[in-house]
Description:
The structure holds 2 protein chains of 2 kinds. Chain A is an alpha+beta fold. Chain A has 3 domains: 2-41, no CATH class; 60-171, PmbA/TldD fold; 180-412, no CATH class. Chain A has 8 helices and 21 strands. Chain A starts with a strand and ends with a strand. Chain B is α+β, with helices and mostly antiparallel strands. Chain B folds into 2 domains: 8-243, PmbA/TldD superfamily (PmbA/TldD fold), CATH 3.30.2290; 251-460, no CATH class. Helices cover 23% and strands 38% of the residues of chain B. At the A-B interface, β2, α1, α2, β6 and β16 of A face β1, β2, α2, β5 and β6 of B. β2 (11-16) of chain A pairs parallel with β2 of chain B, so a sheet runs across the interface.
Amino acid sequence: MKFRIFDGQAFHEHGTSWTTEDGLLQQAHTFARHVAHHIARHKPGIAVALPPEKQLQHDFSSKPLIDPAAVPLADKVAFCTTTYGKIMASGKEFANAKVVLGEFSEVKVFASKHKLLSQHITGCRIVLMPLVKTSDGDTRYHYESFFKPGYEVTHVSDEKIQQIAAMALRIKDAKKISPGTYEAVLHPYVSGVLAHESFGHGMEADTIYKERAMAKEYLGKRIASSSVSIVENPAIEGKHGGYFFDDEGQLATPTYLVKAGIVGSPITDLSSAARMHLQRTANGRCESFDHKSYARMSTIYFEAGSGSKDAMIASIKDGYFLYNTGGGMEDPKGWGVQIQGILAERIKNGKLTGELFYEVGMTGFLPSILGSIAGISKEFLVEGVGSCGKGHKEWVRVADGGPYLHVKQVELS
Amino acid sequence: MTTIPPLFYPTLEIARSLLARAREEKKAADWKLAHEHTHRWNVYYTKGAELEDVLQSERHDLTATAYVKQGKSGKRLMGESSFPILSNNENAIRQQIQDALFACTLTDKEDFDIPDDSFANAPAIELADPEIIAAASDGKGENGVHTLLAELGERFSGEFKKYGGVKLNGMEIHASITERRVLNSKGVDVHQKATEIYIETVITAVDGKRESEFFPAMTVSRLSDVDVTAFVKKYVTFAKDVLSSSPPCLFTGAVVLSEDAIPDFFAPRIDDAPLTAHTFGSTHYMGLARYEKGKQVIPGKVQGDKITLVNDPLVPLNPASQRFDRDGIAARRQVLIDKGIFVGFVASKRFADYLKIQPSGPLGVIELGAGSKTVKELYQQPCIEIVSFSSFVPNSLSGDFAAEIRLGYLHKDGQKLPFKGGMVSGNVFEAFANVYFSEETITIPDYSGPKAVRFEKLTVSGRE
């Protein structure tokens, strides 16, 4: 439970794991007394007006195809054991494997002068991670994760499991890449991280307000060709980053961060929207009741285009196909790109060669990379689970993905 | 401190009583309760040192674990199931225990024993700042700690104003008191109280229309350990150096880590450091470790200094220190790697039983042995110095890394030229085949050891 008071300049928040009515009332009175004490003792700062709100009352709920609560625990354990067995049986080279099945049931109630909202969000995720030993004793792995609102997430085909296992075996012999600038095709797993880490963080309004983001210089200006659009969308159904309203009671709707190549509106929390006189978007999120809300992403992706993955690969004489990443880090002020843990495959004369490169890093200047996007596929994938921090803290669940991107120049090392 | 009756202490007793009954009735072999009680006070400043948010919170996290010994196919196995206790409703807790006991029958870990009280003689190290504790409980109520933090915020704000060409565009100051208790059915009952202060600042350096930023953070246990003057001086210099930096050129050769890059490399915040991860009992049990006890951790011929790595959770008033691990095993200082030879495991009781070794207790401050050269000698030119990574997240198993450089310097022809960007890439275990550590050492949260480390051959990507 979190109480929140706005004093005309700043927010005051009080979080507690207390859950009885008497205890909450007592805490509310104590909190109000402390806020009054604070206001009386501190000199006034810059007055801030919160944006107006409409009266609203609504209850929301996820719609899992299979309610995870209705599935016996024994079945869940059996799924993990069986899947582990399938991976380990697919090759003697596997040192081990990890199969994770997780589920959450999140109930949030938001009450303010204007709103009374509730949401019940369910989610199930699986992570499949085969581990292999290289000839010189290193341990390497490949992993993929999947997310659905319900237990239907376990409907992963044997073919997919075999693909993941086969990729781990190929990684066993992967090499280190020679640093350089290359032409590349980015899998949706990589294009999603590019959208999230490199672009999305720079469009967080609280970051922009603190003069931490170069995006401020680009608002309303062209950054890419008219075929490029980037959407931040908590309302996209059934994704790991989704919700019906944010932690400040704003109903979820999509926001175009880039529309037809032009940089659009930042995503906001209540404080940054008020201070910058911006449209509220449903991105005021906190890690938990004992953390502050910030402007945060949910599910972000490039919009699909008209190209195809195969045609992109066929068009490249010498380059790389980037499969997957271990994550990235934001640099909103410099708009630098840092994505690490990439698995890459060499493309030669329009064909994938089978030559793999492990733990590749991608760096560069984001506007240059966005400006060198030469193709966007119609194939579109937002899959899996992610966790996003602001800096190195304030973790929230997110998702990303999108189409395959053909990028003329990326720096890989 | 809050005057609210401590809900979770009676709840803990209800859970303890119900778990004990399950054990008496032979439904559970053993049980464990872990309780964490955290008070948090945070202040947030936005642009212009304007107060944006004041937060205070109190949270309890009570987690129970049930253990069931069982036999399957002639093998002795251990079932283990943990669950959070969210209410003081006795019937609800009873049902959770029933569910956990059933879950135990579905898990088939190799058998192990939870620790008894002979493992739990936790050393009395100081972990809590008396100033924070006093402010939280001296009758000033919640505002007591907030007042301390506001005063600290004013000191930072005032110190930044002494410098031209920089702006303080944001600051967060957090303080917390966390009490942890672990007790189990074999007599373990250990407790610790620790404080932590976290400071994060957004520093913007300005020169006409050009701007750059540095975004440093620090964590300490004691308010008096916050050296405002030194912090501001160091990071204002870094912010200004970023402003005057250029992108790097492609470089292969000697790379020196110093300043913030050192703890990021040896005690990274997001994942385990590769050097340490292969000392874990769990890594060995799963067949994923590259180290063998009594053998060199770096294969082949090693030039330069040999690694000595110590786990020390007993450094007083260091946020990485702890009195006991999550099972209640007492903390102890332990050599993990001695002059390049793997000698000690970091292992919980479970993995210690499997490997037939002693449990290590918790991971604490990572202490790296000092080296043979002075800091000055390590900067033999040409070399690249990295003082800060954007984020250093190595692959903890393979040791591969590719990390963007937030600020570095090219030392060449008697000059020290700042650069930002590019990636340093390589493999931790290959890099340690030719490394030198400085004689001079530092002790900071998470890390104690050489002030500078020189790898003789790494690659930094950049313009060709």
